[in-house]
Amino acid sequence: MSLHQRYGKAGDPKTFLINMKYSKNKVLGETTLKILKEKITLDKQVLILINKRGYAPITICSKCGKKETCNSCDINLVYHKSRKKLICHHCAQEQVINVKCSNCKADNKKISLGFGIEKVTEEISKEFKNISIISLSSDSIKKNNFSEVLHDIEKGKIKIIIGTQIISKGFNFLKLDSVFILDFDLWFYNTDIRTNEKIFQLTQQVSGRTSRDEETGEVYIQTYDTKNYLLKHIILNNRDAFYERELALRKKIALPPFSKLVAIILNSKNITFLRKISIDIKKMLEPIKGIIVLGPIPAPIEYIKNEYRYRILIKTNQAFLVQKVLRKYNFNTILSNKAKMKIDVDPLSFF
Ligand SMILES: [Zn+2]
Ligand SMILES: [Zn+2]
Fold first, then answer.
1. Among all ligands shown, which has an atom nearest to the Cα of 73?
2. Which ligand is nearest to the Cα of residue 67, counting in written order?
3. What pLDDT, in 10s, does the model give residues 6-40?
4. Residue 67 C-alpha to ligand 2 middle, in angstroms?
5. Which residues in the chain land under pLDDT 70?
6. What is the pLDDT of residues 222-272, one digit of tens each?
7. Do you find a cis peptide bond into 296, omega within 30 degrees of 0?
8. Res 96: pLDDT
9. By CB distance 3.0 to 4.6 Å, which of 44, 199, 257, 275 could disulfide with 39?
């Protein structure tokens, strides 16, 4: 439970929104580029944050609309240009890119949608020739030269740092002048119930990082959603208002800490069997007083590593009750070696 966690006083950082609605360049908005150029002219060091690894999160056939998805999981493959491969970020399976569409057989019709750190690095490198740039993601960080890279960043030798969220954790770059978040809107689209809190803390951390005693750090956020309440609180640096609203929201939908959530994840290679036992288990649990049983529904990633997954969610104020109940039943008979069951109390994400 980190809702009341406090960070050290972050000075008085300034946060600015960059409205992307009228921007022609969807990766690096014209306003963003202008500010970046001013910063570099003034010999400042900047950090560009981007959530997605790889070049583009979606590869699609422009003729028939077929997306490239993982054979083992039910999610889009991410195009990694540097390795000329499509990679599943969930199971790490790799595929070579076939120019022919597997569905409509058209040649050379595949296009990539969205952007990841590789594409941002490509665009930045085009705009800033002869400027020292480093691109850091879990793909590019090699342990042996990372300390060297960190040293160059700390000394201010590197002017533009492009990084995924790994760079926002635990590093302290004292020469840093400003932070640019390019894909802020996408940060919401995951299944983690603590996303809002994480985003708020992250912006506080990065703005805290840029502001030293005598100077004020700046954070620039590209967004299409300029009226977003979270952004409003971030701009005003209004921590109390943010947490108040977040607590009220959680209370309303009975999320932790106001109610316990217990997730039962069932997986099996046999989808028919899985559906049947999911319903059987729900029926077993439903008569129990003091709990609400939701589902079963296919888990957000329904198919992973060649197995189907279903999820039952239990809401209750008494987690011990659920544990007691789950211990009482012998699920092995139901599962009969054809399915597996996992219990997750207060799941952080619903994968
Ligand atoms: Zn096609
Ligand atoms: Zn996969």
1. 2
2. 1
3. 333 445 567 889 999 999 999 999 999 999 999 99
4. 14
5. 1-13, 141-144, 166-172, 188-195, 198, 202-216, 253-256, 258, 347-351
6. 999 888 877 888 787 777 887 887 777 777 766 667 677 788 899 999 989
7. yes
8. 92
9. 44
Per the rule left: phi > 0, alpha: psi between -120 and 50, beta: everything else, 254 is left
Domains and CATH numbers, the chain: 14-54+115-251 (3.40.50.300), 58-113 (no CATH), 260-345 (3.30.70.600)
Which DSSP state fits 263? Answer: E
From the CA of 236, how far away is ligand 2's center (Å)? Answer: 40
Instruction: Give pLDDT, residue 138.
Output: 73
**What is the whole-number distance in angstroms between the Cα of residue 73 and the centre of ligand 2?**
4
Cross-strand bridge partners of residue 261: 315
Distance, in Å, from the CA atom of 268 to the CA atom of 340, rounded to the nearest integer, reads: 6
* Peptide bond before residue 257 is cis, with ω within 30 degrees of 0: yes
For ligand 1, the distance from its centroid to the CA atom of residue 117, given in whole angstroms, is 26
Instruction: Measure 74 CA to ligand 2 centroid, in angstroms.
Output: 7
Tokens of 29: 């908005």
- Ligand in closest contact with the CA of 103: 1
What pLDDT is recorded for position 6? 32
How far away, in angstroms, is 104 Cα from ligand 2 center?
Answer: 23
CA distance 7 to 2: 11
- Beta-strand ranges (E) seen in the chain are 14-19, 45-49, 58-61, 78-80, 85-87, 94-96, 110-113, 133-136, 160-163, 176-181, 218-223, 260-268, 291-304, 307-316, 339-345
Ligand nearest to the CA of 71: 2
* 90 alpha carbon, closest ligand: 2
Nearest ligand to the CA atom of 102: 1
Integer distance in angstroms from the first to the last C-alpha of the chain?
Answer: 20
Q: How far apart are CA 136 and CA 53, in angstroms?
A: 10
Q: Which ligand sits nearest to residue 107's alpha carbon?
A: 1
Q: In terms of Cα–Cα distance, which of 332, 335, 239 is closest to 8?
A: 239
70 C-alpha to ligand 2 centroid (Å): 5
Give the 3-state secondary structure of 145-181: HHHHHHHHHHCCCCCEEEECHHHHCCCCCCCEEEEEE
The Cα–Cα gap between 67 and 61 comes to 6
